[in-house]
Amino acid sequence: MTDRGLKATFNTGECEAEWRPLHDEARDLSYTRNVFAHHPVLRLATSKSGMAFDIYSIHIEPYERILNNNYPGLLGKTELRIEDLKDHNEKTENLVERLHKFAWRVGGWRAAMKSSP
Q1: Distance (Å, rounded) from C-alpha 76 to C-alpha 112?
Q2: Which are the contacts of 37, defined by CB distance < 8 A and separation ≥ 6?
Q3: What's the chain look like in SS3?
Q4: Of the chain's two ends, which shows fewer C-beta atoms within 10 Å, N or C?
């Protein structure tokens, strides 16, 4: 909806050039978010030097892989781990910051449009 609204309101190359990478990045991050949100956690219990610990990962169930082989949210991996979740969080926070800055610029463009004769 935001994409359509921007296209309808602003017919400028500046808006499109800045918005398109943000839009594409949000879409790509949503694929990984969907894997984290909708697929099961696999817990591997093991021990190291006599100390028990668990390794957690998110994976796609084998029966679902048959139905859909394309999971871009897996980032080319077979499962996502804690490090991937941390990386995803960092990228998402970075995107949110850039989207806020973009929103302020859009507000400035909108104000400039209203003040133009």
Answers
A1: 44
A2: none
A3: CHHHHHHHHCCCHHHHHHHHHHHHHHHHHHHHHHHHHHCCEEEEEEEECCEEEEEEEEECCHHHHHHCCCCHHHCCCCEEEHHHHHHHHHHHHHHHHHHHHHHHHHHHHHHHHHHCC
A4: C
- What's the CA gap between 33 and 93, in Å, rounded? 13
Which residues, in sequence order, are bridge partners of residue 55?
A: 44
Q: How far apart are the first and last CA of the chain?
A: 28
Q: What are the tokens at 2?
A: 């935001």
Residue 11 has pLDDT above 70, yes or no: no
Query: Strand 51-59 vs strand 41-48: parallel, antiparallel, or unpaired?
Result: antiparallel
- What pLDDT digit, counting tens, does each position of 35-47 carry? 999 888 888 888 8
User: What is the Cα–Cα distance from 96 to 26, expressed in whole angstroms?
Assistant: 9
**Is residue 62 exposed (0-12), middle (13-18) or buried (19+ Cβ within 10 Å)?**
exposed
